[in-house]
Backbone:
């Protein structure tokens, strides 16, 4: 998919600023009926599941788990009972099966859990889901995250991350064209660097207001992002500025969000993206490239990304996007057709119920 | 494997130990190979297993032990090189090919092998067999997994219970 020119020259985004976004809340009333249907099934319908895999699936290509569709709020896991070896697999030990489970993706874990009571208790062990979560986000498997409260188990988090939902599911769904999951990265500091160009400007001011910094050098530093595991998706959406169906403008979006966002109040729809700033490049751009960095590991990840440009920049006539993910940074890049300039818009979403920290960021780039 | 055993370990290249399986079969192997097992390593470092006494392994039968030792002997040179920083790609490919063939075995052998690897704490073998068992499960429905693992069909009560649990995992379907 290539970025397409937007015929209009509007640089404002009234759709985001003024009108309320389309909210597609999860239908509470529908749940019991769907639940009943699910209960009738003897087994998960694998064929139907796989048929849904396609380029339009937000997490296609990541893993078999990426086919997940429904979003469910899971009940907290039951306390882990003592697992007694049972006939006929009395030679089986919890440790051994925990080891085996670490090689299984989410869908296979669920199938195993539904095999019998013994496995159900085994898979209730949250360490298995933690391992799967970290592995499926391409994070280093040696990473040991801080413990989570019981009511927010890793299983809940896994379900929220891999059920196929993405941030365009609920806001501006009609504009969404295509998307894919890139993986996760770690943020161990409130400082997050956003950039609409690479290599980075030599100096990104920490103190200057982010909007000013973005306008001037195309990169800015957030100082109030929520630390934790962040999930990065890439989307292609229709041009935000135009509402008409005639507009063929396509926007490349790097969407990063805190992994807890989808298990929080986000779904009530009151949280919205606000503009952080925009940067306009008034000359022909060869590539649309944007990245998000953990500031603590900035020089390390920047060096590794710049050194390995071949792994994330395609040949100049290949317009398909390409991404690069390190444990502390994410970058996407699309080669561009002939153009007169590139507009990069930065948006952030705050946690409106708690500490007002930034929990999600979008970098949107389109041709002018 | 092209690499000969050259100066591996501080105990000398040729030190042998004797392992005794549950059915009293004696196996004589190099200490370096047996040391892949964390459990045995301590005993060997203490000087056990040499000479006539041998190390008894009451949890492992001779068929399984010979299989385990086949793995250990193949992997010992690479392990002695400390994770093989200087191993060639050919060596690694050869080990991989060996591993693939090694786990291509009957289920019952696989199960006793994973138990033995667990008891003897052989990390590489544990994860190799675990991966193989996981591959047997991947992409299968709960019923198919039951058949693969040789369970009887579920009783109606058990089936009802599993159906109830399915609701918890609704997100994984469709």
Residues:
């Amino acid at each position: 998919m290539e970025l397409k020119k937007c015929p209009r020259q509007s640089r404002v985004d009234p759709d985001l600023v003024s009108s309320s976004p389309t909210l597609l809340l999860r239908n509470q009333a529908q749940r019991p009926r769907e639940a009943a249907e699910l209960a009738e099934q003897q087994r998960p319908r694998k064929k139907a599941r796989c048929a849904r895999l396609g380029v339009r699936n937000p997490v296609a290509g990541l893993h078999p788990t990426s086919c997940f569709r429904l979003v469910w709020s899971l009940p907290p896991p039951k306390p882990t009972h003592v697992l007694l070896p049972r006939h006929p697999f009395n030679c089986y030990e919890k440790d051994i099966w925990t080891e085996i489970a670490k090689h299984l993706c989410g869908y296979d874990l669920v199938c195993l859990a539904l095999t019998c009571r013994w496995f159900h208790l085994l898979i209730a062990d949250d360490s298995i889901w933690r391992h799967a979560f970290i592995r499926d986000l391409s994070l280093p498997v040696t990473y040991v995250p801080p413990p989570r409260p019981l009511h927010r188990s890793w299983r809940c988090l896994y379900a929220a991350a891999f059920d196929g939902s993405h941030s365009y599911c609920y806001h501006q769904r009609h504009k969404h064209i295509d998307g894919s999951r890139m993986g996760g990265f770690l943020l161990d500091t409130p400082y997050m660097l956003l950039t609409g160009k690479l290599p980075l400007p030599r100096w990104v001011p920490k103190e200057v207001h982010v909007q000013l910094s973005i306008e001037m050098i195309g990169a800015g530093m957030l100082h109030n992002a929520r630390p934790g595991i962040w999930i990065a998706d890439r989307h292609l959406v229709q041009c935000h500025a135009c509402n008409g169906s005639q507009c063929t403008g396509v926007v490349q979006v790097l969407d990063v969000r805190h992994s807890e966002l989808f298990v929080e109040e986000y779904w009530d729809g009151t949280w919205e993206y606000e503009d952080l700033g925009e940067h306009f490049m008034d000359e022909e751009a060869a590539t649309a490239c944007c990245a998000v960095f953990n500031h603590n590991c900035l020089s390390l990840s920047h060096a590794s990304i710049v050194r390995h440009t071949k792994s994330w920049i395609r040949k100049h006539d290949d317009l398909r996007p390409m991404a690069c993910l390190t444990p502390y940074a994410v970058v996407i890049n699309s080669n561009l057709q002939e153009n007169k300039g590139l507009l990069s818009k930065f948006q952030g979403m705050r946690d409106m119920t708690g500490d007002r920290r930034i929990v999600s960021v979008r970098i949107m780039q389109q041709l002018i | 494997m092209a690499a000969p055993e050259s100066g591996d370990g501080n105990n000398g290249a040729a030190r042998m130990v004797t392992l005794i399986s549950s059915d009293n079969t004696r196996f004589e192997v190099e200490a370096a190979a047996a040391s892949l097992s964390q459990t045995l390593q301590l005993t060997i470092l203490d000087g056990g297993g040499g000479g006539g006494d041998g190390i008894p392994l009451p949890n492992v039968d001779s068929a399984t032990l010979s299989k385990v030792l086949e793995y250990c002997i193949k992997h010992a040179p690479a392990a002695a090189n400390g994770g093989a920083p200087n191993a060639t790609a050919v060596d690694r490919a050869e080990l991989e090919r060996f591993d693939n063939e090694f786990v291509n075995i009957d289920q019952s052998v696989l199960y006793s092998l994973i138990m033995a690897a667990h008891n003897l704490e052989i990390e590489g073998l544990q994860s190799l067999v675990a991966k193989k068992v996981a591959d047997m499960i991947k992409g299968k429905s709960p019923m198919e997994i039951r058949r693969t693992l040789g369970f009887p069909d579920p009783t109606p009560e058990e089936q009802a219970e599993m159906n109830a649990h399915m609701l918890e995992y609704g997100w994984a379907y469709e």
About this structure: Chain A touches chain B through 49 residues (CB under 8 Å). DSSP finds ten helices and eleven strands in chain A.
